[in-house]
Amino acid sequence: MKAPLYIFLTALVFAQEVQMVKNAPPNIIMILADDMGSNDASYRGSDQFTTPNIDALGYNGLIFDRHYTEPICTPSRAALLTGQNPSKLGLQGTPIAPGEDRHLPVEVETLPSLLKNLGYDTHLVGKWHLGSARRKETPTRRGFDSHYGYWNGYVGYFSYEVSSISQIGNVTKALRGFDLWHNFTDAWSDKGTYATDLFTKKALEVIQEQNVKVPLFLMVNHLAVHTGDDDIVEVKDEKLMNETFGYIENLERRRYADALTQLDNSVGKIVEKLQEKEMLNNSVLIFMSDNGAQINGFYHNGGSNFPLRGEKFSLHEGGVRNAAVMYSPLLEKKNYVYKYPLHITDWLPTLYSLAGGNLSLLKNLDGVNQWDNICRNKPSQKKDFLINIDEAIPYSAIIGYHGQFKLMNGTTLSGFYDKYGEEPKVPKKLAYNISAVLGSSVNKAIHRSNPDHSDLTPCTIIELRKSASTIRQNLKCKDKGKRNKPDICSGFCLFDLLEDPCETENLIKDESKKDIINNLKFKLQQYWEVMVPQTNKAVDIESNPAKYNGSWCTWKDDQLCVKTPLKI
């Protein structure tokens, strides 16, 4: 065969293969961090340490400047998997406690169940936190083909144990048990393995065993960087941690940096495995945090939301405007910062539609399909969205006018979680490690899987990082006077998020904003009218792991649990 004809035919075959990939439903991989600070992804401008794989994922795809979640774990995960505001599900309050008989309503469709109906294989690795009193409330009965991980909100990084408190009258009893499962079999044999490594290993096994002709939906919900059961971020290798991050004087912050590095490595390994299996060229990968870092109170983890106001539990930006990036060869436009708001409820309609689902068949969604907007860097047509309602506090917030204004009502613990955190101290000469990003597992895997993809350059990285860190340059964010004496929202507050992303100036008394305030109050009231009251319950003493071989079993299905042997 003559060379020109051979080259032509080879190119034609390649083009046909590319078109076949584009027409096939994409693999969808979501990686969730737990309690990660918005200041802790190094693409956002912090020079304390580098997250090269997470950064490379965003630089090669896109970075979300305004990715909004719920302020705490259970509500965020409910919103993500249902596309509905958690206040419509009764899950808007505090996270589900171990031994609490509360769960995601079983009649509500979930993203994995919808994708499963479209022919996807669906797998969850890591955290669930949406109910486990009965088997029908756990992941494999809610749309996932398999689950390897824990049912409750957090566990020890090595012990996989978690504690809870049962209160009956004046009697208080501490409950403690093991929480690591492969579907419904407790995984005691994996006790002692560092959680981030273990969940990465299980995710890689899922990818390795996947039939590449069948689309994959994989969620990897890491424990990192939440504190462990002992109220610290447990360390994989203390000696190596101190060698690597010894320049960070604060021990808690040093542990946090180490945990985040292990998480970043996990992202690299997952992307590498997808490339090895030749799945990356038809995949959508999303990395996000479920809420902001908790810098005060129980289970504070050393994270940073600087310069944003607030933290986990807060409806200020530091609690709900969180790190998120996405990569996919299917994106029409790449290498940019998406400046428009996207809410966590938007992922279900976006991904379901991308997978070939018919959105018109789904009811009660609060999220909207954002794929076309994301792909082409277009603003969403979504005019307003609810951040959260918590009637028990009470505390609520809505963002309207295409993301410009936030109306809040109330606060948490008299403003305890609504304050500003200081930026952690590090050496002034610590420089951003561009070489680490270029040499990262993610960057290399992306370019191996797609040779036509334009290579990242130092100039591109610098430009994208500059664009992603504009909040840090905002003059109002730097106003130390207002940061030191913030106006706590005991009633209604209004913030202009475009001019004042750090929420330093309350505009509620501004007469020129009267129509905006009244309009947002009206819309917020509409959300209150469809709210389902919280279903919070006391921890059930019958859930006591001491009855179930030391494990947090599905105790309402007592007959299906392994019982503790009777002592003779």
Summarize the model shown.
Helix content is 29%, strand content 16%. With 568 residues, it is of the alpha/beta class.
What do you see in this structure?
The chain has 568 residues and is α/β, with parallel strands linked by helices. The protein has a domain at 3-95 and 223-382 and 431-474: Alkaline Phosphatase, subunit A (3-Layer(aba) Sandwich). It is 29% helix and 16% strand. It contains 16 helices and 19 strands. It has helices at 3-23, 52-60, 73-82, 111-117, 195-209, 238-245, 251-276, 317-320, 347-354, 371-376, 434-438, 441-449, 458-468, 470-473, 480-484, 514-529, and strands spanning 27-33, 62-64, 67-68, 121-127, 146-150, 161-168, 171-178, 181-182, 185-186, 216-221, 283-289, 321-322, 324-327, 336-338, 342-343, 385-390, 395-400, 405-410, 492-496. The strands form 4 sheets. The protein has a 10-stranded mixed beta sheet with strand order 9-8-5-4-10-1-11-13-2-14, sandwiched between helices. A hairpin with a 4-residue loop joins strand 17 and strand 18. Helix 2 packs parallel to helix 12 (441-449) and helix 7 runs parallel beside helix 12 (441-449). The protein is globular, with a radius of gyration of 23 Å.
Topology at a glance:
Elements: H1 3-23, E1 27-33, H2 52-60, E2 62-64, E3 67-68, H3 73-82, H4 111-117, E4 121-127, E5 146-150, E6 161-168, E7 171-178, E8 181-182, E9 185-186, H5 195-209, E10 216-221, H6 238-245, H7 251-276, E11 283-289, H8 317-320, E12 321-322, E13 324-327, E14 336-338, E15 342-343, H9 347-354, H10 371-376, E16 385-390, E17 395-400, E18 405-410, H11 434-438, H12 441-449, H13 458-468, H14 470-473, H15 480-484, E19 492-496, H16 514-529
Parallel strand pairs: 1-10, 1-11, 2-14, 3-15, 4-5, 4-10
Antiparallel strand pairs: 2-13, 3-12, 5-8, 6-7, 8-9, 11-13, 16-17, 17-18, 18-19
